[in-house]
Specification:
With about 325 residues, the protein is α+β, with helices and mostly antiparallel strands. It folds into two domains: about 150 residues, Beta Barrel (M1 Pyruvate Kinase, Domain 3); about 160 residues, MoaB/Mog-like domain (Molybdenum Cofactor Biosythetic Enzyme, Chain A, 3-Layer(aba) Sandwich). Helices cover about 30% and strands about 30% of the residues. The protein is built from nine helices and 17 strands. The strands form three sheets. Strands 1-6-5-9-8-7-11 form a seven-stranded mixed barrel. Strand 1 and strand 2 form a beta hairpin.
Length: about 325
């Protein structure tokens, strides 16, 4: 558990100006009450580490906390390494009592000349060192309080649909490969993750039940592999269609056509991408080659899809 002590809470009545320290701040669904940056958007509350002031070798008497327009100035817990705030990722959270903040953006564009902060210091650390959050749960914060940093952990499920693999006629190579590809993707993006693997027969009732279990449990992503052909036992596409609330057809159509140029048989396998509740759902064909090809295409826009589901317009 990483804890960070609040050194100062700060408010400004106009954008582009330094914030003044307060004895406490009240947060509601729009951000910090009375602050110029409050509103129904994603950069409601800004945080900056004390280390940013030390990095610039600033005298805190001349540049008191709030000089870079941060709402909350933080210090690491005694005996612990101070977390590098800019290494936070969208979806990470900070909690303190009733207050819960969710990270939405790392850094921002500097206003440059004309900005009171820039004119006073000659440069601003917020574009690289600051982070921005939105309020998930309201409350009051004051100096001396401790924020607990909670990195987002992605929960992902891979369901292999194959009666023959389920009955032990051959090993489930596609599901194993898909789990490895997802793990590599998460590692490249520094996403803590937990990937569950399930092997099912070609049974519509069992697949429907398992999909709903993962979706109702709040999983971030669910992938299926297998059961997408035109054979009498291929039931995956029909079941996945039933649970999707919104389809995203372009991804799979593009991948299928791209693969079909080299292998026309690839056009005989269906595939699906879409959303159910807050879970991204992908139905992939069952061959090892198809899993490689499809996940390669999905991974190109997967991060953007995840952030869109969070309500974040991050490009």
């Amino acid at each position: 558990m990483i804890m960070m002590k609040i050194l100062s809470v700060n408010v400004s009545e106009a954008k582009g100006t330094v914030k003044k320290a307060r004895e406490s701040i009240t947060l509601d669904k729009s951000g910090v009450c009375g602050d110029a940056h409050a509103g129904l958007w994603h950069r409601q509350v800004s945080l900056l580490g004390e280390s940013a002031y030390r990095m610039m070798d600033l005298n805190t008497e001349e540049y008191p906390f709030g000089s870079f327009a941060e709402n909350i100035t933080l210090e690491g817990s005694p005996g612990e390494d101070t977390p590098d705030l800019k290494s936070c990722l969208p979806g990470d959270r900070f909690s303190c009592g009733d207050v819960l903040l969710e990270v939405t953006q790392i850094g921002k564009q500097c206003h440059g000349p004309g900005c009171e902060i820039y004119e006073k210091s000659g440069r601003c650390v917020m574009p690289k060192e600051g982070i921005f959050t939105r309020v998930l749960s309201a409350g009051i914060l004051k100096p001396g309080d401790t924020l607990i940093y909670i990195p987002k952990k992605y929960h992902i499920a891979v369901i292999t649909v194959s009666t023959r693999a389920f009955n032990g006629f051959y090993a489930d190579r596609s599901g194993l490969l898909l789990k490895g590809l997802i793990a590599d993707f998460c590692r490249q993006n520094n996403w803590p993750n937990e990937i569950s693997g399930v092997l099912l027969p070609d049974d519509a009732v069992k697949l429907h039940k398992k999909l709903n279990e993962f979706i109702l449990s709040g999983y971030d992503m669910v992938f299926t592999t297998g059961g997408t052909g035109i054979g009498p036992s291929d039931i995956t596409i029909g079941v996945v269609k039933q649970i999707l609330q919104k389809e995203v057809p372009g991804i799979m159509e593009y991948i299928r056509i791209s693969c079909g140029q080299e292998n026309p048989n690839a056009l005989l396998s269906a595939s699906l991408a879409g959303v159910s509740e807050n879970t991204l759902v992908f139905a992939l064909p069952g061959s090892v080659n198809a899993v490689n090809e499809y996940f390669s295409g999905i991974s190109r826009c997967l991060k953007h899809m995840v952030y869109m589901r969070m309500g974040l317009d991050i490009h």
